[in-house]
């Protein structure tokens, strides 16, 4: 055994022990290197600000406008997983970082950070824009719900991408789960639709951010948390077991 | 491998005067049909569309409340088989199919093989548009054919008029088939502009579903634009009579038909223009 | 015959191809050489009308290729073995291409047999190895039985048997009087295949001469023998000498 370990060369001068922060930094680099990440984030921020300025409703966080942010966050999370599979980069990545759970954790950390920042930027834009009509009446709870919605969608996007593995299917999947379901299923319909739609992050968030709906606050927070945890577990478990 | 095999494959080389030039449009259409037919995902999509629409008709037909013999005359039965939600999704799926038929060729690189085989790009796109639109229209017909009897049997005893000769039924069937054809052509234009499968699909869903929802939600006052989207035009054309509980934004005027025709015309023009202009 | 005249392509501020003028004659295998990034693929794409030249022109048998109604019976092309939809079978892929040019099913079966893919023709291309995809690409090039054939790096990924087969095929096609234009960076392969070489570097023409003349440029030890065969390694040495100033990527290169 000692003979075998001896074969491993001493760490050369240009490398130090890789830490989790190094992994996160690497994922951060991968996320921002293609031009579309920055372009899409900027587009969503600008669009949402424009929408917020033209919003005739007397609410701070108007729900339909936030659909765009949900989609952007979901796609951002999804592309960190699916582009690796589509390009075959995943093989290089897993050769460099064989511990897949660490890899997914690092990816998730970057996605959570970026999408939370995106959501909070939008929330601040909404608060600034709504001040004349609603006097900036956003509670910390409302802002926290907005900040949490981004990461929930980002992680959900990662889970969809892990399941779909194919570029176009992933994009359609994210659009369905985060965008089409809340449009098609609405809590004012019959009992079955009411329950299903309340389990969607969109309606949990709108309960917390604008007080609409019949859910209690803990249930709404619980739903958001359940989405985040379930999405993360799906991503970790499937990626850990799959041949790439 | 021996040299004789090489010889025999090229034995007809001598004369090359049998060139068919230009390509017959019929052959181009057949080639595009082979591409679509030869992909499993096309058939999954067809199956899903028919299944989805049947389920939607069954569900919406089975959850009708408040219909009495007295008010039955004022309810348009067409809103059940031609449910807005169900057909919005069908339209977006048809558009995604159109978008992928173009973006998929670009992302896989197949477009180079295709263009080298037929250098006149406008004709390729025209043939592709024809095949994609006809396929989408056929799926639309199949969905109508499934939804009408299903909704009819669910509504038996409450509402009538969903037979093949019912008032407005033929018009609704045609308009629905056209909706999917038009959507698929819009998707093709988006696919030609974006050329990346994930980007094209996202843009398609945003343009046909999310942006109209946003515009029409009252968040910003642009509902007039939302009313000119294909699904809203389809609603106006296919089921506005007799007075229905689902009010259509536009009357089924010649204007609605004109806009309905403008969408595919502009889409095909954009797709052809972009593909001809760009390097591949 | 392929002719280019002052062919030039600029992308924003990079000139990929710079005033290339050459002629590829029928009846022989012409090798197209150049270091990575020298503009080989861009040149081929402009010849095929895939990219529009910024300046200059390219003609195949006296015509601009983009003006042709059908392509397969004029030019057989293998640009990149990956230019296939991965979700379709080899047979479907060829059938679609053939049908667009009015070519029948029997010809598809025939070329599949020729390249040795008959047994796997109904499997999805996504599951093919690189060598199998190269064979499929060669099959597509042969479909229309064309007088001009263009192959971009056709040997990549082929096994030794496949390499020998491809070599024989190219020589056979040229012997029948066709124009055969093969790009490659494998000098040893060119030694066995090409009669004539066109060498470019940095988008400019560096050499347009017979294999033996080109090999004669090799510095010192490699001497050109009297017979038209080339001394082993001479071609590679000559290539390094000629492209010394234009290679864009070189191992150990520092700015």
From TrEMBL, chain A:
<keyword id="KW-0472">Membrane</keyword>
<feature type="transmembrane region" description="Helical">
    <location>
        <begin position="103"/>
        <end position="122"/>
    </location>
</feature>
<keyword id="KW-1133">Transmembrane helix</keyword>
<feature type="transmembrane region" description="Helical">
    <location>
        <begin position="167"/>
        <end position="185"/>
    </location>
</feature>
<protein>
    <recommendedName>
        <fullName>ABC transporter permease</fullName>
    </recommendedName>
</protein>
<feature type="transmembrane region" description="Helical">
    <location>
        <begin position="219"/>
        <end position="239"/>
    </location>
</feature>
<feature type="transmembrane region" description="Helical">
    <location>
        <begin position="142"/>
        <end position="160"/>
    </location>
</feature>
<feature type="transmembrane region" description="Helical">
    <location>
        <begin position="35"/>
        <end position="53"/>
    </location>
</feature>
<keyword id="KW-0812">Transmembrane</keyword>
<feature type="transmembrane region" description="Helical">
    <location>
        <begin position="65"/>
        <end position="82"/>
    </location>
</feature>
UniProtKB/TrEMBL annotation, chain B:
<feature type="transmembrane region" description="Helical">
    <location>
        <begin position="129"/>
        <end position="152"/>
    </location>
</feature>
<feature type="transmembrane region" description="Helical">
    <location>
        <begin position="43"/>
        <end position="61"/>
    </location>
</feature>
<feature type="transmembrane region" description="Helical">
    <location>
        <begin position="206"/>
        <end position="226"/>
    </location>
</feature>
<feature type="transmembrane region" description="Helical">
    <location>
        <begin position="86"/>
        <end position="108"/>
    </location>
</feature>
<keyword id="KW-0812">Transmembrane</keyword>
<keyword id="KW-1133">Transmembrane helix</keyword>
<keyword id="KW-0472">Membrane</keyword>
<dbReference type="Pfam" id="PF12730">
    <property type="entry name" value="ABC2_membrane_4"/>
</dbReference>
<feature type="transmembrane region" description="Helical">
    <location>
        <begin position="255"/>
        <end position="275"/>
    </location>
</feature>
<protein>
    <recommendedName>
        <fullName>ABC transporter permease</fullName>
    </recommendedName>
</protein>
<feature type="transmembrane region" description="Helical">
    <location>
        <begin position="172"/>
        <end position="194"/>
    </location>
</feature>
UniProtKB/TrEMBL annotation, chain C:
<keyword id="KW-0067">ATP-binding</keyword>
<keyword id="KW-0813">Transport</keyword>
<dbReference type="InterPro" id="IPR003439">
    <property type="entry name" value="ABC_transporter-like_ATP-bd"/>
</dbReference>
<dbReference type="InterPro" id="IPR003593">
    <property type="entry name" value="AAA+_ATPase"/>
</dbReference>
<protein>
    <submittedName>
        <fullName>ABC transporter ATP-binding protein</fullName>
    </submittedName>
</protein>
<comment type="similarity">
    <text>Belongs to the ABC transporter superfamily.</text>
</comment>
<feature type="domain" description="ABC transporter">
    <location>
        <begin position="2"/>
        <end position="227"/>
    </location>
</feature>
<dbReference type="InterPro" id="IPR027417">
    <property type="entry name" value="P-loop_NTPase"/>
</dbReference>
<dbReference type="GO" id="GO:0016887">
    <property type="term" value="F:ATP hydrolysis activity"/>
</dbReference>
<dbReference type="InterPro" id="IPR017871">
    <property type="entry name" value="ABC_transporter-like_CS"/>
</dbReference>
<keyword id="KW-0547">Nucleotide-binding</keyword>
<dbReference type="GO" id="GO:0005524">
    <property type="term" value="F:ATP binding"/>
</dbReference>
<dbReference type="Pfam" id="PF00005">
    <property type="entry name" value="ABC_tran"/>
</dbReference>
């Amino acid at each position: 055994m000692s003979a075998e370990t001896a074969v491993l060369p001493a760490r050369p001068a240009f490398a130090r022990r890789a830490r989790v922060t190094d992994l996160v930094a690497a994922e951060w680099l991968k996320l921002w290197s293609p031009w579309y990440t920055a372009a899409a984030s900027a587009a969503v921020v600008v669009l949402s600000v424009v929408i917020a300025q033209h919003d005739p409703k007397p609410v701070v966080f108007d729900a339909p406008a936030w659909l765009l942010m949900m989609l952007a966050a979901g796609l951002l999370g999804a592309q960190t997983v699916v582009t690796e599979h589509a390009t075959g980069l995943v093989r290089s990545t897993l050769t460099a970082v064989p511990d897949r759970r660490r890899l997914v954790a690092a990816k998730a950390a970057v996605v959570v950070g970026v999408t939370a920042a995106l959501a909070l930027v939008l929330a601040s834009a909404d608060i600034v824009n709504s001040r004349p009509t609603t006097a900036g009446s956003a509670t910390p709870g409302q802002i926290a719900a907005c900040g949490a919605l981004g990461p929930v969608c980002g992680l959900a996007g990662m889970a969809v991408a892990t399941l779909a593995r194919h570029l176009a299917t992933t994009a359609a999947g994210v659009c369905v789960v985060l965008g089409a379901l809340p449009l098609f299923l609405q809590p004012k319909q019959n009992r079955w639709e009411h329950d299903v739609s309340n389990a969607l992050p969109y309606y949990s968030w709108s309960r917390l951010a604008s007080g609409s709906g019949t859910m209690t606050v803990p249930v709404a927070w619980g739903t958001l948390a359940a989405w985040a945890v379930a999405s993360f577990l799906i991503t970790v478990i499937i990626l850990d077991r799959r041949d790439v | 491998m021996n040299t004789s095999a090489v010889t025999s494959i090229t034995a007809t080389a001598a004369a090359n005067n049998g060139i068919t030039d230009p390509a017959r449009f019929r052959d181009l259409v057949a080639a595009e049909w082979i591409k679509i037919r030869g992909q499993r995902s096309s058939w999954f999509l067809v199956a899903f569309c028919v299944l989805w629409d049947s389920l939607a008709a069954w569900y919406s037909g089975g959850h009708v409340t408040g219909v009495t013999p007295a008010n039955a005359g004022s309810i348009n039965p067409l809103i059940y088989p031609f449910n807005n939600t169900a057909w919005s999704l069908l339209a977006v799926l048809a558009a995604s199919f159109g978008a992928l038929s173009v973006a998929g060729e670009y992302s896989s690189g197949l477009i180079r093989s295709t263009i080298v085989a037929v250098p006149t790009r406008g004709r390729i796109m025209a043939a592709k548009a024809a095949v994609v639109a006809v396929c989408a229209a056929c799926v639309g017909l199949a969905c109508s054919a499934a939804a009408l009897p299903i909704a009819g049997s669910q509504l038996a005893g409450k509402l009538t008029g969903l037979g093949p000769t019912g008032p407005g039924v033929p018009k609704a069937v045609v308009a629905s088939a056209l909706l999917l054809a038009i959507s698929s052509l819009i998707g093709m234009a988006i696919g030609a502009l974006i050329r990346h499968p994930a980007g094209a699909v996202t843009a398609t869903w945003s343009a046909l579903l999310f942006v109209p929802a946003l515009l029409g939600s009252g968040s910003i006052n642009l509902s007039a634009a939302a009313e000119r989207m294909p699904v809203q035009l389809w609603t106006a054309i296919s089921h506005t009579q007799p007075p229905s509980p689902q009010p259509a934004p536009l009357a089924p005027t010649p204007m609605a038909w004109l806009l309905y025709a403008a969408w595919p015309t502009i889409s095909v023009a954009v797709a052809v223009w972009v593909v001809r202009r760009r390097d591949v | 015959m392929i002719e280019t005249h002052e062919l030039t392509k600029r992308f924003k501020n990079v000139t990929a191809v710079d005033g290339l003028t050459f002629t590829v004659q029928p009846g022989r295998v012409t090798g197209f050489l150049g270091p990575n990034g020298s503009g080989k693929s861009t040149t081929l794409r402009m010849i095929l009308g895939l990219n529009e030249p910024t300046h200059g022109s390219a003609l195949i048998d006296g015509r601009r290729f983009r003006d042709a109604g059908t392509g397969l019976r004029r030019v057989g092309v293998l640009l990149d073995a990956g230019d296939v939809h991965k979700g379709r079978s080899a047979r479907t892929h060829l059938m679609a291409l053939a049908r667009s040019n009015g070519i029948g099913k029997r010809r598809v079966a025939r070329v599949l047999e020729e390249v040795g893919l008959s047994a796997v023709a109904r499997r999805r291309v996504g599951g093919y190895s690189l060598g199998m995809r190269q064979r499929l690409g060669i099959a597509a090039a042969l479909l229309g039985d064309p007088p001009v054939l263009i192959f971009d790096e056709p040997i990549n990924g082929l096994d030794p048997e496949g390499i020998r087969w491809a070599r024989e095929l190219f020589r056979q096609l040229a012997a029948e009087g066709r124009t055969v234009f093969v790009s490659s960076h494998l000098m040893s392969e060119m030694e066995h295949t090409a009669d004539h070489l066109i060498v470019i570097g940095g988008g400019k023409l560096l050499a347009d001469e017979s294999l033996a003349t080109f090999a004669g440029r090799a510095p010192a030890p490699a001497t050109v023998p009297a017979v038209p065969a080339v001394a082993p390694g001479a071609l590679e040495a000559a290539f390094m000498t000629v492209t010394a100033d234009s290679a864009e990527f070189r191992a150990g290169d520092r700015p």
